[in-house]
Write a structure and sequence with these properties.
By secondary structure, the chain is an all-alpha fold. It is built from six helices and no strands. The chain has one domain.
Length: about 190
């Protein structure tokens, strides 16, 4: 019963985090031309708080599940390479979240996304790409039961790298497109 409750809690935290992040990313893209007023800053702060709490819940339930698995199955449980891959992705997500909160989001308090210098837009785009691809891949690993004790760590991480490269490519295209629109608007204003 304990394992079922832990898995359920882990699943709920994942759903809350993913739903909140997808909604927030959509809003941030809609706001790309806007200054963050008090209402938008409050919404962004709420997203940070909800995702932070969900991530904490995921760490706690995840570590509890690992402990429960170890006590039930012994050392064989820890030899599951998918478990190590998921741990790696979650550590990357946690570090990326810290970077977003400390170095990424403060940029949006300085100017709208489209008005930021190219390197700042690129940093935000790549941090966002790592965030979304990491969250989606970690959630996928949570349900990829056939990969338990069957898929090598490097193969799993290669799949993550491919997803991350795809997300980074999309981010680069979008950041570049925003830069071209910004240059075109500046040229039109100067004429």
């Amino acid at each position: 019963m304990l394992k079922t409750l832990l898995v359920y809690s882990h699943l709920l935290a994942t759903c809350i985090a993913l739903g909140t992040l997808l909604t927030a990313d959509h809003k941030l893209w809609r706001w790309r031309r806007d200054w963050l007023d008090a209402s938008k800053r409050a919404q962004l702060a709420e997203v940070q708080q909800v995702v932070g709490m969900a991530l904490l819940a995921l760490w706690l339930t995840g570590l509890a599940l690992v402990a429960q698995g170890y006590f039930a199955e012994g050392m064989a449980y820890l030899l599951n390479q998918k478990l190590w891959a998921k741990g790696t992705v979650v550590v990357l997500l946690t570090l990326n979240g810290l970077l977003l909160h400390r170095n990424g989001f403060p940029l949006l308090h300085q100017a709208p996304f489209v008005a930021l210098p190219g390197p700042a837009r690129l940093r935000l785009g790549l941090l966002g790409a790592l965030s979304m691809s990491g969250w989606l891949f970690a959630a996928f690993l949570g349900v990829a039961r056939p990969w338990n004790h069957g898929m090598p760590y490097l193969h799993i991480m290669a799949g993550f790298a491919a997803l991350l490269l795809l997300a980074a490519g999309v981010a680069l295209v979008m950041v570049r497109a925003v830069g071209e629109v910004r240059r075109a608007e500046a040229t039109a204003e100067s004429c």
